[in-house]
RNA methyltransferase
Amino acid sequence: MITGFSNPTVKSLRALREKKHRKAAGKFLAEGLRLLTDARESGFLPETLVMAETRDTHPLLAALEADVHAARGEVIVTSPDILSKITGKDNPQAVAGVFTEFDTSLASIDRSSSPVWLVAQALRDPGNLGTMLRTGDAIGAGGLILIDDCADPFSAEAVRASMGAIFTQKVARAQWEEFLPWLREGTGQLVAASLRNAVPYRGAPYAAPCFILVGNESRGLPEEYEAACDLKVTMPMKGRADSLNAAVAAAVLAYEVIAALSP
Amino acid sequence: MITGFSNPTVKSLRALREKKHRKAAGKFLAEGLRLLTDARESGFLPETLVMAETRDTHPLLAALEADVHAARGEVIVTSPDILSKITGKDNPQAVAGVFTEFDTSLASIDRSSSPVWLVAQALRDPGNLGTMLRTGDAIGAGGLILIDDCADPFSAEAVRASMGAIFTQKVARAQWEEFLPWLREGTGQLVAASLRNAVPYRGAPYAAPCFILVGNESRGLPEEYEAACDLKVTMPMKGRADSLNAAVAAAVLAYEVIAALSP
């Protein structure tokens, strides 16, 4: 039971809201019983479980607590005020957990494990990032590869928007100069939505493993990145706008790809 | 030229960040030259144009300023600090405009003007709302109908996420009890993504005008709303999650519908 705001554990948990402290600690925070249960059922237990003393009893929370104890993890009970301080939310969920960040090297990716992968370049919005993870989970993608300077997949907002997919999808981070040689070491079709020299996205010759590449929210993909793609496809744009939200574009394209690749 | 933070015009513009003040004034704020140019090219001029004294010259800004003057609108020049105060952003765009809110009654909707309409029920996230408007623009939808208690389409976040589509898409707001009789007064197929008694979304018998209905981000659609639909379709869910982000689900379904309805 922790009751003091200045407790060192509270301070170190609070610090995980900031990217530099997450990076230094190699840890991140996930909030809410649903997310923590998704994690547990995917084989991930928090090393520290923080619960509000005002929490309601719930069989899933009891199961989580028992598993954390069994794994010799730490269980902390605290006040809603302190939990609010830790999560930075006025109405925090009654439970949060601290997880070790995953290995996000390209070397950790087994491209043969799925026919579809999502790839995002310079994606700045953590909500879009989490939404892409969630879409990846839904379509049975292998994971999300983040190219160049992207939002942090372990930020609270990305974790929340992923709706648990942060625990089911592989995440890798790489610079373009590192990604492209890695891709060309094995089989893999790089596909981008584009307005230049593109074929209609419906009925395009998709091939597994298919890597669906979307660009930055405001600038799109650099021209030389597009030029390196094996296939450029175009989606109907009937209005004034010339682009879709990045997470939306990835999803529409990904659903087309899995339909094309399904037997 | 306005230099004082306590200037009544500054105060009234600042107030537009809050829903109750927007509603009372019947006005909303749009920021940035790109958005204001989208508005102008769609036939909407701000009644008040606010520019930072530090703005760069730009032919599109000059054109906008000239049009606002010609329409006897107000042009205000102010400091970046005051513009920051008005927009609530640390690094505000150099220009913002005040627009009159549009008529959002169902009576203002001409369903025959487009084969596809997006409908959202109890959508709470203004980013999702704006993204749906943007998708609607891209697919040539008629507009977005907001059912029950939704986020405000005129909030800064929704307007920004719409990427100008707030000026090209019709927006209507109605309670379900009002919407359903309106829909049944004319032709219109109500389609929902559902897990209950649904057919695959690819190859489903879509018919124009098709109204694509998505539910609240966390609760989905109430059962009785689903029961009132003419067609329930299901999308592949291969992972742990049983749902997609609301704006993503709407987009994937909408692209399928326009492909099916295209000659």
